[in-house]
Amino acid sequence: MRRTSWQEYQKDIADDKYYYARSCIRQNFFPGSEKAFLDIMHNDLGIDIFDDPLHTSCTGIGYHSDIVPLETIMTVVARQFSLMADAGYEHFISSCITSFGIYNEILSTWEEFPETEERTRRYLKEATGRELVKPRSIAHTSDIMFHHRHAIARKAKRQLRNAFTGEPLRVVEHIGCHYAKIFPKSGIGGSEFPYVLAGMIEAWGGEVVDYPERRHCCGFGFRNYLVQANRGYSIANSHKKLESMAPYRPDFIVANCPGCAMFLDKWQYAIAEMEGTVYGADGHGIPVLTYEEMAGLVLGYDPWELGMQMHQVDVEPLLDKMGIEYDREAKYLGKNGKYIGKPDIAAVNCEEARSIYEIKR
Amino acid sequence: MEDVRFEEGLKSCMNCGVCTAVCPAAEFYNYDPRQIVTIVQTRDEAEIERLLRSDTIWYCGECMSCRPRCPRGNTPAYVIQALRTLSQRTGLFVESEKGRQQLALKRTIGDNILRTGYCIVPRSVRPDLHPEQGPIWQWIVDNDTELYARFSDVYGKEGAGALRRVDDKTMDEIHRIFEVSGGKAFYDNIEKHSERKAREMGYDGADEEYMMATYTTNSDNHYEI
After folding, report:
1. I need a labelling partner for B77 at 20 to 30 A (CA). Which of A89, B13, B119, B164 fits?
2. pLDDT of residue B1
3. CATH 1.20.1050.140, domain A14-142, yes or no
4. pLDDT tens-digit profile of A24-66?
5. Dihedrals φ, ψ of B38, to 5°?
6. Helix or strand (DSSP H, E) at A245
7. Which residues of A touch B100 (CB under 8 A)?
8. A113 vs B contacts (CB less than 8 Å)
9. Domain with CATH 1.20.1050.140 in chain A
C-alpha cells in the first residue's frame, strides 16, 4: 500500500497581515535576504507585513547554549507576542528556524504546563508592565514563501532551469533541524517528508535532489560551533553532508535556516583550505542560497542587491547557468557604488587562488 | 530540581538506542544519549551527580534529531538541557573541561544579548577568533558600515530594519526581564563558580586569560570508544 503519512504534516498558513520577527544570524550574514523577503511580500505580492523596530532577539542561541534559562526565554518571547498584539497583528512569522522552534516549544509548554504560562505572565507584567497575548498562528518565513509560491511563479522572470539546455537545475534542499524535528506537525512535510523548500523548487522549475544524508544536521550544534575548541564537531557534520550530496552533482544548495546556509557555505571554504577538497561539479564550491535569494533570482532581482556577494562560495557559476545578466565589476561595491576593496581569493572561489594544496577538481 | 523538560523529555525509555543512532554528537564524540537517559531513569543520585561533573552532558548539539525518532515520544536533548541547567545551578559545571566553556558562552552570546539585544552582531564575530569564516567575512567586518548600508537604512541606528540599534527603553525591558525571571542571577552564578575554579586552577580569577583558555582548550580526550 502506498504510504500517505506525509499528508498528516500540513499546516494552516495565514494569507496576509504578518508580524515579522528578524533573525540574529540571518540579519548578520544574509541581510539582503531579509530585505528581499520584505520587498517580495510587500512590493511583488502586495501583502501587509509589519517590520517592528521594538522586538529583540528571542535569545534562542543563548537558550540552546544553556546560558539563558527557560523562564527567561519564555518571558522574552511573551514580550515579542505582546508587541505583536500592540501593533494590531495576530500572525507571528519568524525569520529564524531556531526561534520558530522555540515559539512552538513555548506555546506547547504553556498548554501542557499551565503554571509556566501563569509564571511568564507574572514575570512579563512585573518586568515590563505588558500583557501576554498569544498569536493566532506561528509560521516560519519559508512557510509564507511556500504558501505564496504559485503567486511568485506567476510573476517569475526566470525559472530554476539551465538557460542553455532547458534542463531543470538540480537542487539540494536542507530544511534545518529546528524547523520540524522539535514539532514535526508545525513544519510542512514534517522532518521526514521535507517539502517546504522542495515545493518552492518544483513550483519554480527546478528538480529536488534526494541524497542519503538529506536529514542530517548541518553541524551548528550551538556550543559545538560557538566555542572554538569544539568546532571539529561542526565541520565534521557539514563534511558528512557535503560528501553525501556531491556525487549527485547539485547545481546549488538551498537552506531554510540562516545558520545552515552559513555553515554549508563557510565549511566548504574551510575543507578546501584544510584538505584541498571542493564539492562543486565545476571545480569550485557548491553555491549555497537562502530561499529568499532563490525567490529573488526567480523574480528577477539583482544578485548583488540580494546580498549574494556575502557568500564565501561564488554564486557566478549558478547565475551563468541560469542565464542571468549581472555586473561582475559591481559585486564588491558599497552603497551608491563606492569602491571598498575586495576580499582575498580562496580555493572555493572562481578566480585562481594560491594554495599549498593541489585542489582536487 | 523542578524542570518541565525532565517531565516532557522522559516518560518511559525502553533503551532501544534510536536516539544514539541518529545523534550527530554520538558520531563525533564518545557519547551515548541512550546511556544518559538510562542513568537519569534509575534516579541513582550518585550517578547523576557524576554526570553533572562530567564532560558527557556537554557533547550534545541540541539539534533535537532524537526527538522525532524516539518511539516512546521522549526527548533525550530536553533531558540534557535540564541536566546542564542543574550542573550550572549547583556549580558542578566547572569540574569538566567542556562544562567550563559555559563562561565563554556567557561572556560572548550572553553578554551580547544584554549589550545589544541580539545574540550576535557583526563585530562580535571577530575574524581572528573565526578563521573558518574566511576572507569574505574579514572583508565584511572591515567594511561593515558601507556594506550593510546596502541592505539596511538603520545599521547601528534606531528604526525598522536589519541590525538596527535597539532603543534604550527596549533594552531596559530586556534587562528587567533578565532580573525578574532569573536570567541575570544565572549569569552571575556562572561567573561566581568560574571565579572560584579559575583561582583553584592557578589563574588570577576568571579573567580574560582564563576565559580564553576555556574557549580554546581541547584535551582531545573526547573521542575514544
Report:
1. B119
2. 59
3. yes
4. 999 999 999 999 999 999 999 999 999 999 999 999 999 999 9
5. -60, -45
6. helix A231-245
7. none
8. 4, 7-8
9. 14-142
Q: Are B136 and A312 a contacting pair at CB < 8 A?
A: yes
What residues in A contact B217, CB-CB < 8 Å? 229
How many other C-beta atoms are found inside a 10 Å radius of the C-beta of residue A88?
Answer: 9
**Topology (CATH level 3) of domain B4-90:** Fumarate Reductase Iron-sulfur Protein; Chain B, domain 2 (1.10.1060)
CB contact under 8 A, A217 and B65: yes
Whether the pLDDT of residue A356 is over 60: the answer is no
Residues in chain B: 225
Give the right CATH number for A157-337 from 3.60.110.10, 3.90.180.10, 3.40.50.11810, 3.40.50.2300.
3.40.50.11810
Interchain CB contact of A170 with B (< 8 Å): no
Interchain proximity B182–A71, CB inside 8 Å: yes
Question: What percent of chain A stands above pLDDT 90?
Answer: 89
Q: pLDDT, tens digit, for every residue of B155-172?
A: 999 999 999 999 999 999
Extents of the domains making up chain B = 4-90, 110-216
CB interface of A with B, residues 56-75, below 8 Å: 56-57, 59-62, 64-72, 74-75
- Alpha-carbon distance of A103 to A138, in angstroms, equals 8
Residue A339 has phi, psi (to 5 degrees) of: -80, 125
Question: Closest Cα to residue A187, out of A148, A138, A258, A222?
Answer: A138
